[in-house]
């Protein structure tokens, strides 16, 4: 017969990370994020920008080329002409590059914020000497995570290469006609083919990036998994030791019981069941809007209330329906419910008449 030693599994990290551990990891910069998602969104945003501003780019490029091969060729090589030529090139370059840089910055920031949210920490870039350990470095190089990243890169390269090859092979007829076109027509055809290839690649990379993000989220949660003992220890740190909490509650109940029993002699009447329930009622006349419940209990506690009431000459009145209703509807320190005013008033009137006779 096989005997299982459950202690062997005590350290198994099978439990989901607690919110506290997730928050601690977040403050240290350990957040699930995909480096593929910003790249894919930046590529997609750049392609859309070029598509929208393609006419502007072509018009300015052709204008600059025409200006360069006509006016600029007649320049004398002087300091003033060289400076002017430099600023012309710089202006044209800025017209082409600045919109792309703007898209890269905005889309890149949005992609990172979408994954990480608003958090600032320098923990990930803090120097750690253990990272210089060559053995640990070899472990990271030949780890499962590195192998998965390699497979992802090979998959991306393979799929992008196939899309580019398939797109080019489908446009061979248009490529053969480029020799008979003018410069504007050549740029238009090449631009359309290039846009189609990049558009397909961007959508493919975006799909892979979304898949990678969910994988990174799963892998991050798996790396933070906890053992049952770790969950118990964290619960003790956050909620307190259950044994100590139990003792505290027990003492609180004992103190509340003592206070309740100390208030029984102040009661005007104790309404009983007669043996199972006991409710002590106090009414101070003009000082109170309505009678209040100063003590209540069942069975053993009810017997203690009745005993203290007898010792302090508090009148006991047997009324089974009223005692059960008061116990269920009124808490200690509360005024009696309005619907029981008449019944309690009759009991108090009986008690006052009885005391006057005595």
Biggest β-sheet: strands ordered side by side in the sheet: 3-2-1-4
**Form type:** elongated
- Report the β-strand fraction as a percent range: 5-15%
Q: Name the helicity range.
A: 55-70%
Count of helix runs? 13
Please count the beta strands (DSSP E, at least 2 residues each). Answer: 4
Report the uncertain regions. 1-10
Structural category: mainly alpha
Radius of gyration: 42 Å
Query: What summary fits the major beta sheet?
Result: 4 strands, mixed
Q: Would you list the SSEs in sequence order as H and E?
A: HHHHHHHHHHEEEHEHH
Rounded mean pLDDT is 77
Distance from first to last alpha carbon = 81 Å
Subcellular location: Cell membrane
Function: Required for formation of the rod structure in the basal body of the flagellar apparatus. Together with FliI and FliH, may constitute the export apparatus of flagellin.
Keywords: Bacterial flagellum biogenesis, Bacterial flagellum protein export, Cell membrane, Cell projection, Cilium, Flagellum, Membrane, Protein transport, Transmembrane, Transmembrane helix, Transport
Membrane topology: Multi-pass membrane protein
